[in-house]
Here is the input.
Amino acid sequence: MNHHIFMQLAIEKALEGIKKGQTPFGTCIVKEGKPISIAHNHVWAHTDITAHAEIEALRLACQNLKTIDLTGCSLYSTCEPCPMCFCAIHWANIKEIYFGAKLEKAKEVGFHELPISNAEMKRQGKSSMNITGNVMTEACNQLFETWLQRPDKKIY
Here is the structure.
């Protein structure tokens, strides 16, 4: 499977969100080599602190597949999922996470993140999930730079 194709879809969705005044995060969920949902962060648009890109993509994937069990799906996120999103991914039975930027990058630019990596959550939770970082990291880090230059940027 070409992980760059799916990460590129997440990056493009994040850029779409940035243009709409949202934050620099995008997610693509894939099943059997096909994207089933692609979403960006909607925290400000929905006035919903839980409307992270991963949560939005999970909601859409569940609706599209008409199930809350996303076994067999992989998730591509422009940034390492936060603890809330990691738990939701776990509950959805997704067994593969691919991410670009590290969670520390989000914290570095001002996001109020808990400094707990996916690897640490996997270890503490004794999860069998496969986690692969550094997928198109440079392009994913660039999303933060693009967002930081916007005069309408808001942080949470």
Summary: The domain at 3-148 is CATH 3.40.140.10 (Cytidine Deaminase; domain 2). The mean pLDDT is 97.
